[in-house]
Design goal:
seven-stranded antiparallel sheet; globular; 34 strands; mainly beta; Immunoglobulin-like; six-stranded mixed sheet; 494 residues
Length: 494
């Protein structure tokens, strides 16, 4: 048996074709004069978060598929529809790595994640590994056949694929796909598209502009692939470019944050060390949850980690360094977004197309309204079950039995750049959108508030269309977004 075609790179998106083609000419045809019947290729899918799926442990098997040989005598499998069900967005912090017999966690306000004190992924002080967004998988192939039309099926073992990783990203039809001319293997080259943190032009896992706007107590995370991989070219983790020095592992060792005021630095240079003590992971390894790491870089995250946000600042820079102290990412600029000139600010966060989170503040005229649907009944006048009939003014007529009310908010942005205009399409089309509240005091009279309900509030985008605006067509670009809060307002029944 031979794997004739497979994904070109080891990291694949959940929403893309994950094609394997296998051939076994001898067992498909059989020997001369003794053909094989009822031939089927068998594919067993193994998936894990904590190890290498090529170990094919029985507890890691999630599905068994069969395919008949096509006219060319090969079996073609697309595993995407099955594998995509096993990755999902990272909503929470939590367990990050089990190291030397100790379980480590992400932190919020310098306290470990726990069931009694959970926190969302947006609120992490420093780092958190992906819990739900990445899985490791491998495919074990075999073949079955009978030596006569009525004979018993026999199974012959084949081979097991390499280990691959699937993460909760989507692929667009116009994304540039690399194809290997000798094999037909194809895949999305993350390194070619600058999503691997190993040089100063590399991007975090977002399509956002490198210039962002943020308030004085806003939460914001960036995410990144933890390692660049050792080798280059086909069959590598992310498809690193072939070139001088390209085989060097460039793991993110630390994130740097520097504030500026009036063109000069203000406050100390902040260093976030990426290791298990801070909720991150530096070393390379098989575990799927270590492949994608989140880092908290918002003003709310910085304060929560115990670092100082200067009183006066215009903007701050965020960038990554490796263990040789070389800058291995692009620099992201976060400009101080003053309160919205008397308007109520709404910060929204959404699941982006790379499976991580993006953020945007709507700071102009934001309008709240409540839509209500009422169920009514006709109430009798007077008392009919007492010794005398009494008539009261509050009784009788049409009454409301229950009210179903939801809040609808129309958000308006400030003027944005053409780059930001293209990026905001992801907000309008995202399946997961939340309103994110500013960092504030959680404790009152020694009690801990429910910080999940307090900070992260689910909503649904109600805007049915999105117009991508350009400078040539539209000059100034401003957007209106209508959202409906997911939870009903609680109202008593009469």
């Amino acid at each position: 048996m031979n794997i004739k075609q497979k994904p070109l790179y080891k990291m694949v998106a959940a929403d893309e074709e994950i094609i394997f083609v296998v051939e076994d000419n001898a067992n498909v045809r059989g020997a001369p004069g003794t053909p094989h019947y009822k031939v089927k290729f068998i594919a067993e899918i193994y998936l894990t978060i904590g190890g290498n799926a090529t170990s094919t442990l029985p507890s890691d098997k999630i599905a068994t598929l069969k395919a008949s040989p096509n006219n060319a005598g090969v079996g073609i499998f697309d595993f995407s529809r099955i594998l995509e069900a096993y990755v999902s967005p990272d909503y929470l912090g939590g367990e990050t790595i089990f190291w030397s017999g100790v379980q480590y966690y992400s932190k919020y306000n310098q306290s470990n994640y726990s069931d009694a004190r959970p926190h969302s992924i947006h609120q992490i002080d420093e780092f958190s590994n992906s819990r739900k967004g990445v899985r490791n998988f491998a495919i074990k192939f075999s073949i079955e056949f009978a030596t006569s039309q009525t004979g018993t099926l026999s199974t012959v073992a084949g081979l097991t694929s390499d280990a691959y990783y699937i993460h909760n990203a989507v692929r667009q039809e116009d994304d540039t796909i690399a194809i290997e001319s000798t094999t037909g293997n194809f895949g999305y080259n993350y390194d070619f598209n600058n999503f691997v943190i190993r040089h100063s032009s590399a991007k975090f896992l977002t399509n956002s502009p490198t210039t962002q706007y943020i308030g004085s107590a806003d939460y914001h995370t960036l995410a990144f692939f933890q390692e660049s991989g050792i080798y280059t070219g086909a069959n590598t983790l992310y498809g690193n470019k072939v070139g001088s020095g390209s085989a060097t592992i460039k793991s993110v060792d630390e994130i740097k944050i520097q504030f500026y005021s009036g063109g000069s630095t203000t406050g100390s240079l902040i260093t976030l060390d990426n290791n298990f003590l801070t909720g991150g992971h530096f070393a390379n390894g098989d575990q799927a949850k270590n492949k994608v790491v989140f880092v908290g870089v918002g003003t709310g995250n910085i304060a929560g980690a115990g670092n100082t946000v200067p009183t006066n600042w215009d903007y701050y820079e965020v960038y990554a360094k490796d263990d040789a102290l070389q800058t291995v990412s692009n620099t992201y600029y976060f400009y101080n977004q003053c309160d919205g000139m008397g308007f109520e600010k709404f910060r929204v966060t959404w699941l982006n197309r790379l499976g991580t989170w993006d953020y945007f503040n709507f700071t102009k005229k934001n309008v709240r309204k409540v839509n209500s649907k009422r169920e009514t009944y006709q109430q009798l006048k007077g008392t009919w079950n007492e010794t005398t009939y009494k008539k009261y003014g509050y009784q009788g007529g049409q009454k409301t039995f229950s009210t179903n009310s939801k809040e609808v908010i129309t958000l308006q942005s400030d003027f944005v750049t053409e780059e930001a205009s293209a990026w905001l399409e992801e907000l309008f089309t995202s399946p997961d959108v939340f309103v994110l509240q500013e960092r504030s005091t959680d404790k009152a009279a020694g009690l801990v508030n429910n910080i999940l309900n307090k900070y992260v509030q689910p909503c649904v985008v109600k805007s049915s269309s999105y117009t991508k605006k350009t400078t040539a067509n539209d000059k100034l670009k401003q957007y209106t977004l209508e959202i409906e809060m997911s939870h009903n307002k609680r109202i008593q029944r009469s």
